[in-house]
Amino acid sequence: MMIANSVVDLLFAVNTMITMASVCFGPQLVYVITDNPLYPKTYLASLIGIGSHLFLMFLSVSMLPLKFIYRYGVMRNRPFSNIQLFGMFMVSFMLGALHGGACPFTFTPRSAYYDEILKKSLENPNAVVNGYLVGEVHEFNAMAMHFSNVFVIMAISYTFIILMIYLSKQTVTLQKNEMMTKQTAAVQRQITRIIYFQALYPVFVIGFPCLLFPIFVVQGKTVPYIGEWAMFSMHTPPLVNSLAVILCVPSYRRFVVHPFKSSRIDTSVMPAQSVVDFGRQ
């Protein structure tokens, strides 16, 4: 499960580098922009880039419970089969696909009218406008439902996470198994730290910005750089997930830190005979 999540994080990072997606708010408008100047500015290219970006972002969120489900199966000594895990993955896949695939029905193509509003929102009348999609939220319309879908995905994911944590606490088979070695217990603790951190972090960097989006859009606020900050934070999970694995696993941590350590001679551990020989010279 951790490998599958890492693959999704990698794809999300690659998509981010290609599109450089960002957000800007106008008067009851939200612009999702492909800031890469080399990326095509056509409607189809923007739709593919932004749709796949949102798909991968929320696929990573909807996949979070899978690690807890897999852990619960191991703890009760009845691991889920590959077919069962694949079925759970497909549910996560459909949740992400629903969010990314809704873009053609909720966003509006670029136009000269929206270009002028975007330049005013950026407070730069001479700004070079890249490709973008724009969503209007004047009432409870399709765009508002698209926003609501974010909270549905978050609610489903964290409901299952909390449920799996509760069930895991009730399962003591693995914890009290006398045959479990110290090494196995240490690995279990490391994995637990990793998946807990990787589950908690998106609440702040994805959930919180997504909560601000509809508030700012409905109120018509054009707060400078709030969109850039929000998208920056929403793009950090792949990096932080990797750092969590490195920091929580001692062998990985030593491998990464070792090149930066200064080499020095520790005389406190030098053999006594060596010290005597050195004094005679």
Automatic annotation (TrEMBL):
**Which InterPro entries does the UniProt record give?**
7TM_GPCR_serpentine_rcpt_Str
Keyword Membrane tagged: yes
Q: Which Pfam families match?
A: 7TM_GPCR_Str (PF10326)
Coiled-coil regions listed in the entry: none
Keywords tagged on the record: Membrane, Transmembrane, Transmembrane helix
Query: What is the protein named?
Result: G_PROTEIN_RECEP_F1_2 domain-containing protein
Where do transmembrane segments lie in this chain?
A: 7-31, 43-64, 85-107, 147-167, 199-218
Judging by the UniProt lineage, the source's domain of life is Eukaryota
Q: Which organism is it from?
A: Bursaphelenchus okinawaensis
